[in-house]
Write the structure tokens for this entry.
Amino acid sequence: MPPHTLPYYFDLAGVAVFAASGVLAARDRDLDLLGIMVVAAITAIGGGTLRDVLLDRHPIFWIVDPTYVVVILVSALLTVAYLRARPAPGMTLLVADAFGLGLFALSGAQLAEAAQCPPLIVVLMGTMTGVTGGVLRDVITAQIPLILRREIYATAAIAGVCAYLALQALGMPRTSAFWIGMIVVVTLRLVAIRWGLHLPVVKKA
Amino acid sequence: MPPHTLPYYFDLAGVAVFAASGVLAARDRDLDLLGIMVVAAITAIGGGTLRDVLLDRHPIFWIVDPTYVVVILVSALLTVAYLRARPAPGMTLLVADAFGLGLFALSGAQLAEAAQCPPLIVVLMGTMTGVTGGVLRDVITAQIPLILRREIYATAAIAGVCAYLALQALGMPRTSAFWIGMIVVVTLRLVAIRWGLHLPVVKKA
Amino acid sequence: MPPHTLPYYFDLAGVAVFAASGVLAARDRDLDLLGIMVVAAITAIGGGTLRDVLLDRHPIFWIVDPTYVVVILVSALLTVAYLRARPAPGMTLLVADAFGLGLFALSGAQLAEAAQCPPLIVVLMGTMTGVTGGVLRDVITAQIPLILRREIYATAAIAGVCAYLALQALGMPRTSAFWIGMIVVVTLRLVAIRWGLHLPVVKKA
């Protein structure tokens, strides 16, 4: 994990927003401050840790560089302070989650690509990296996982990674493709939340 | 992971039936098609991924070979199509789960054996490989894990792996022992489901 | 994993008490004996397995040495036998969990230290190692995770690891610091349970 590169800052941004989403999910649970920090940390590093373990990338991204944990603590403390000052708008958790989903889906895809995985695996690895932090958060705080929401969720991650791969195949440079993939994930997710959009649901007969 | 060997096809069969079981577990959850595919994929690769991570087998079985993901998608799509045409018989999820349990329990045992684990560890590794996909499926879809069912569940995996080890110790070739172990798991599970059999339950005083 | 050292016996003690806590958590679930053993085993090895996977320590501590699984089976069987003879006092699960939390938090911290992790990461790794077994136990047995309890929980692990690091920085030998850290975790946890102590809870506005 070379510091001071764009992916490094994306990982930092991803852990920051997922840490905030962990605090938001934990706030109704009567946890003390350090318990909330632990939930925030597990949410923030879950997706990237799974990505690194599956791709056999050691040391795991947060293990040798304390910057990640510092960013998590600062993000979580700011979120706690904000929540004490005023109530969070109802959608804040979902919006923070959307950005974390996008950042980790694309970073998982990028590292799977670097590990020479075939495109289908790149999509799966990106999607799993994106959804894992949120699934862990929801399981630990005993909530129905967001991945089960009727609105577009995993679908947004899949669409974003596919866009990233397709645009590169069409000749776009990697960084631009990354950004557009990211925008696809977040936009799809926010549009789906705002207007309750969803793909046709699979009905049982 | 050498392609075109028997274990390879067993892994493929295991991911196919667990993918179908993931669709069956997710169908009442109002997920869209891609969300269902993600649940199917996590269910299908969960047990084998844990096995490979614990045994330090890299690359993980599905990471370099897209065949697995293709099999998962095809199996999940066929299951979805079937469910739109007619309702699944009530036991279908349990039967698909029984075959996945057996295939992954035996494959986990076989790879633990190849890694020179002692017999007790072979049994534990086989059992964990067998039950993990189903536990992940049930946790992600917010259901009571099948492993908590009163009927013989983990017990079936343990019995099958023990049979596999015992028959080899008695001189039976590995492949035959594998098949009999597999038959033990699936038969025990199906008999237990059909007649509600269970071992004596541990009662609290 | 050098046998016959102090950390080795701590790991054995940790798996023994977590195995007992797994039995206590599973006892109301109508599981058969082998199902209970599997829940006990997953609870007992969960934290240490996560620790070894994240630190890339292979083979995983229980994979080559069957002693761990033997200890788990004996501890779980004794617990089952005890429960058949008389009801467990209401706090038994919480007390067993407190010792497991302490042992694994400190052992996780010690191994993270040995892997040259920075102090903040040592604290996080110790805490995650300590809480994972209990979280897995609670998720598998479909209970609200203890980590969500209002009383001091993750906080006890963090305090114990911080004490361990601080005392070493002040010149105390590692083994003494380990014991004091362990005492801090267990005492904090037991005091918190007994008198319902907790840090100020983060209230939403």
User: Anything to note?
Assistant: The two ends of chain B are 49 Å apart (CA to CA). Chain B has a mean pLDDT of 87.
